[in-house]
Design goal:
The chain is mainly alpha-helical and 124 residues long. The chain contains four helices and no strands. Helix content is 60%, strand content 0%. This is ATPase AAA-type core domain-containing protein.
């Protein structure tokens, strides 16, 4: 292991279990943590619970939180990727419709309809 190690992965892959074993190897008799040269190293573990507590403390002190949970980052990236993919599909569909209307000489009508639909959705 390095001086600082990040353990990350999907939900249910054992990240919390591994960190608990490292934090309290005596509490897990079926697991064994072997330290280099037999010297236990200082352990600073940050999991979701600790991150949430730090964020609460920072809010009480009105300080910006500097802790970001890696799983949260993965979830945000996945959500953004899904939104980008959906937006790209909508843009591709829109571009196809514009091309069809342009070929028929009615692109101004399509753009006018789409503009009105957009304005209505923004107002609602």
């Amino acid at each position: 292991m390095s001086q600082i190690n990040f353990i990350f992965g999907s939900n249910g892959t054992g990240k919390t279990t591994i960190s608990r074993v490292i934090a309290d190897d005596d509490g897990f008799p079926t697991c064994k943590v072997t330290w280099k040269d037999g010297t236990k190293l200082q352990k600073e573990l940050l999991n979701a619970r600790v991150a949430i507590n730090i964020q609460r403390l920072a809010r009480k002190r009105k300080e910006p939180s500097r802790i970001v949970e890696l799983e949260s980052i993965d979830n945000v990236v996945n959500a953004i990727t899904t939104q980008v993919d959906a937006t790209n599909a909508l843009v591709a569909g829109h571009n196809k419709m514009v091309a069809i209307f342009e070929e028929s000489g009615h692109s101004a009508h399509y753009k006018m309809i789409m503009g009105a639909a957009f304005e209505e959705s923004v107002i609602e």
